[in-house]
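Hey, resending since the last one bounced:
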Amino acid sequence: MFSKFSHSLSAKLLLLFICAGVVLLLLVGAIVGKGFATHLKTSTQPFMQHYVELMQTQLGSPPSRESARAITENSPVEIHVFGPEEWSTSLTPMDYQELQQMFHSGERNRIANDGSEAPANFFRNYRNRLLLHAESDGYDIYYEILQSNELFSTPPYNKSLLLTILGILVLIYYATKTLFRPIDEIQSGVKLIGSGNLNHRISKRRDDQLGDLADDVNAMADDIKDMLEAKRQLLLGISHELRSPLTRSRVNLALMDESRSKSEVEKDIASMEQMITELLESERLNSRHVSLNLETARLDQVIRDQVQAEFRGYIKVMQMDSVEASIDVARIKLLMRNLLSNAVKHSVDPQRRATVSVLREAELNCIYVTDSGEGIDPEQIPHLTEPFFRADPSRQRKTGGYGLGLHLCKVIVEAHGGKLSITSEADIGTKIRCAFPTKT
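The structure tokens again:
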């Protein structure tokens, strides 16, 4: 989930909007709260001070219970008196120690009957009610304003404001998600094109920068497809044209006397003919209109016959499950010829011959070919099936062919709907797995 969120632009923008909204709300709340407190101290305090002075005058000195009852009957206030006498007009008396700690923890508060200036903090929020403090002749008098709870409680419109903010954030999220929706389609389209599906094109949903990006990707795919087709046609043309001079060379060579030079030239011509054959075959199988001559045959028997005919004594036949499949026998034989000849060539341990086996695994028919070679660098394995790739950059004949064999093997396997994979371990050898679906 976190990985998906970290790659989502819309989710990141939503988080940015939420953070910005929270910071804005905190900033506005702080400014409003500060302004309210300042207003309460500077503008409202004189009125409250005057109000307390009037009540003090009416209450008398020392405080009179009868005067207090008269005040509470005409005003929404309760009076709490502490001193030589302690009494309260409220049925719920206050805790004097708590009041002392609240009002006298800092500067001493006092409202004198003569109207002298009182400190700015002579009022307090006591249990969501405004509490005013005054002193008179050794008495601490507290005036509790009964209807002041609304002053300190959360205004009712705050809930609707919160819901409105949440609704706006939801709308922003869906608007952002809609805005960036083409990115997902462009990303999946680029993956398909990059995997080799050059016929795929990305739909242009909007006429904006993302739409322009989709057009650019489609144009790039067209260019790549044209370049690959030009390369394919060039290879096919050259391969066809090379057949004629090779045929003439072979005819002329047949007229020469037997010698070591003639034998070497014959090997070179045979190698070139094999390269041209494999090149043409791989390009045919890469075509969109690939045509396989499918027939029902025993895959294990085809491989046994191939080993007996060409690799007796060089390849050790291991487990061979009886597998009947619809295959192009000629191309499967070409596949096995390339794989087995490579395995024989790279098996350097005389005590461990190259092996071949056919196994039925779940819904797959698998061919395994292993050698006892020195192994392959892991970084080179993904490139082994690329045309003309050689693990040995010197391209010496004794270390391998011309780099088309494994490419052709991969093309043949994929033409049958299968997959070719290669694993290798240093000083142990290399294993090639050709997995075909059972419906093949």
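The domain at 295-437 is CATH 3.30.565.10 (Heat Shock Protein 90).

Sorry for the duplicate.
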